[in-house]
Automatic annotation (TrEMBL), chains A, B:
Annotated Gene Ontology cellular component terms: cytoplasm
Binding residues for NAD(+): 115-119, 139-140, 152, 161
Bound cofactor: record note: Binds 1 divalent metal cation per subunit. Can use either Co(2+) or Zn(2+).
Pathway: Metabolic intermediate biosynthesis; chorismate biosynthesis; chorismate from D-erythrose 4-phosphate and phosphoenolpyruvate: step 2/7
Enzyme class: lyase
Subcellular location: Cytoplasm
Origin superkingdom: Bacteria
GO molecular function, one term: metal ion binding
Family: Belongs to the sugar phosphate cyclases superfamily. Dehydroquinate synthase family.
Ranges for domain 3-dehydroquinate synthase N-terminal: 77-189
Protein source organism: Blastochloris sulfoviridis
Source lineage: Bacteria, Pseudomonadati, Pseudomonadota, Alphaproteobacteria, Hyphomicrobiales
The protein, known as: 3-dehydroquinate synthase
Ranges of residues in domain 3-dehydroquinate synthase C-terminal: 191-339
Amino acid sequence: MTETSTPTAARRLRVDLAARSYDILIGPNLIDAAGAEIAARRPGARLAIVADETVANLYLARIEAAFAQANLPATAIRVAPGEGSKSFAVFERVVEALIDARIERGDLVVALGGGVIGDLAGFAASVVRRGVDFVQVPTTLLSQVDSSVGGKTGINSAHGKNLVGAFHQPVLVLADTAALDTLPPREFRAGYAEVAKYGLIDDAAFFAELESNWREVFAGGPARLDAIETSCRAKAAIVGRDERESGERALLNLGHTFGHALEKATGFSGRLLHGEAVALGMAQAFRFSARLGLCAPSVAQRVEDHLAEVGLPTRLNQVAGGVGPVDGLMDAIAQDKKVARGALTFILARGVGGAFVARDVAPDAVKAFLEAETLEAEAAPA
Amino acid sequence: MTETSTPTAARRLRVDLAARSYDILIGPNLIDAAGAEIAARRPGARLAIVADETVANLYLARIEAAFAQANLPATAIRVAPGEGSKSFAVFERVVEALIDARIERGDLVVALGGGVIGDLAGFAASVVRRGVDFVQVPTTLLSQVDSSVGGKTGINSAHGKNLVGAFHQPVLVLADTAALDTLPPREFRAGYAEVAKYGLIDDAAFFAELESNWREVFAGGPARLDAIETSCRAKAAIVGRDERESGERALLNLGHTFGHALEKATGFSGRLLHGEAVALGMAQAFRFSARLGLCAPSVAQRVEDHLAEVGLPTRLNQVAGGVGPVDGLMDAIAQDKKVARGALTFILARGVGGAFVARDVAPDAVKAFLEAETLEAEAAPA
Ligand SMILES: NC(=O)c1ccc[n+]([C@@H]2O[C@H](COP(=O)([O-])OP(=O)(O)OC[C@H]3O[C@@H](n4cnc5c(N)ncnc54)[C@H](O)[C@@H]3O)[C@@H](O)[C@H]2O)c1
Ligand SMILES: NC(=O)c1ccc[n+]([C@@H]2O[C@H](COP(=O)([O-])OP(=O)(O)OC[C@H]3O[C@@H](n4cnc5c(N)ncnc54)[C@H](O)[C@@H]3O)[C@@H](O)[C@H]2O)c1
């Protein structure tokens, strides 16, 4: 592995944010090119790599070799795998380790891993010396198509997910698609929910393509690369137009309000992965839209069918151990960050590719919907 | 106390930062006008007041009454007084309390207190839901003339002061000059170091005025109001030109590199208050400048004389318990956030009002200077 320039197979996108613009490179074995890519942009930078144990065991030596070859001194900081690392305690430890590694302005934090590591390391970078730059090297499908792009970083609060954090854009995203080969199938599938999301939001043609080609996307090769590129392009475009989520960017939360409530109800326990919660949440968002008369029930069914076909959960009875009473879900929804002055904000849809931000959803309507869903789950345990 | 509009005595300045511009109001009893001032700008906001126990006992009931009168619901969050509250543990507690108080976009965190509270509450506001707005109600001289203006917020790291934080501008600063009447004299004097600093940086006339009028500034009344206004204006101007400290803003660190090292050496123990450390650090910065041939020794003497006259420390032998070996100070200086690639950055001066950013100071020169200072302190114990 002695790549010293961008592998020719890599696709290059750009997130346009004036002074904060950055490249996204997508392609196989980009980890081996990380040293060259970073040295070209930031010669002489000191690096600190944050990775979870699982990813470190698989890829740390390779990225360290790439950095050594490019003469970039690098310190590694390891954390436990899993959502539990998005905590104040781990955040403090990573921040102190970054300071200990003498990361200062001009240096770089490298987030090597999935969304947990990107969120945690990005947030830590945003606060060290009031902000140092960071690079995303996403290694899960979810992080390659979603969390590594757009600058949302953060940790979880005792009150809910992602309630503590910063907007902090990376200076570069290196999505090594070959790294996905070691990803457990369940994790790949969970990430696929976010791929499908881009079709559901505003790209009906992409969703239709996925309906026919999803097996190739799962198998790897060009179809996977295409799907990741299309997803990143969609996210980059929305972020470029609305960095701080004052409007349109909220569309990316399709399925996430229900999804976060479900994750909270299952205690972030791994009973429901983030992407799985989003899949179920998207199915619910379309069923709720149908119930409100916004789209035909057949549209909700179509969405559910596709998600179910790839093996994602779409019904409450598929959540091992259940999600508890509706009141608990409602509390989580009200505490969720998309609440504005009592009225609930939801992403609803008029069709596949027809999502919109509804800022005035009545809590009672949500509650009635969730009660119907819960009754149905009780009537048909998995 | 039923003020409902800005008391006529209040001075109004503006910090110009495009979309992040804000007002600074300075005057007696502004705490009683806080409700009206905030309601005028943000009707219907929910408030969370962060205060330390000392300040809460003195002013919380009054500001709560002002908020109640303006129909602004407010939750109070109390922390222990002192630098120790700028810790990860207290930060976590405040962040969770703000989320618990359902502070969301459009709501406001109110920092009622000195620089510790402003830094802590401002940083907490910057990360709650990735950023909510905050108001500074500074109650110490130091916070009124310095820390409440400019958006630097943060906490301390195990490795040094203010190494963790965010740039987060307040949306309003209300400096109640009458609150200074309850401030212990030692705290007032410490804050005065930052007032003198503005003269030393680039306003020789202001420094000369202070030399003749400092007793009136300490006594209160118009001279004090004038000095606070001049200081805020100086800070606002520099911040307006260089919000992120990419250049000129570093001038505000006059005395702070030595000062931080001294605070660290004394363990942030209260043996040396921040402003006292800055006073001693400024005296050192001028002596170091004289040693380097940048200014006449008489200039350094003049600076020292004024600071000593008001009762501020200017020599190492005045630090109760001492500051330990030079190596400890050098470590702290190297770990300080103003280090760039090995060379040390210091604010030096060619004269009173003639400070400049020196980015290439040789560590050896600093060490030799500190050794001379230490020898002298040992020769003449206080
Ligand atoms: N910032 C954002 O915009 C945003 C968007 C969506 C989700 N998120 C966050 O992302 C997180 C979920 O991300 P995730 O699903 O990537 O989780 P993750 O980071 O926990 O990764 C999932 C699991 O896969 C393992 N893994 C990662 N890469 C691997 C590889 N190449 N081979 C083998 N194993 C590998 C990890 O060790 C982990 O156990 C959540 O915390 C969610 O809140 C953030
Ligand atoms: N953010 C910035 O730009 C900036 C600039 C300079 C200093 N700082 C920070 O500010 C802090 C020092 O600020 P400080 O000196 O205001 O310290 P502080 O907040 O600890 O206040 C000093 C003491 O005075 C008490 N007090 C406050 N107001 C009072 C009043 N009106 N009456 C009676 N007692 C009162 C407090 O309880 C405390 O014990 C340091 O942490 C320093 O790093 C920040």
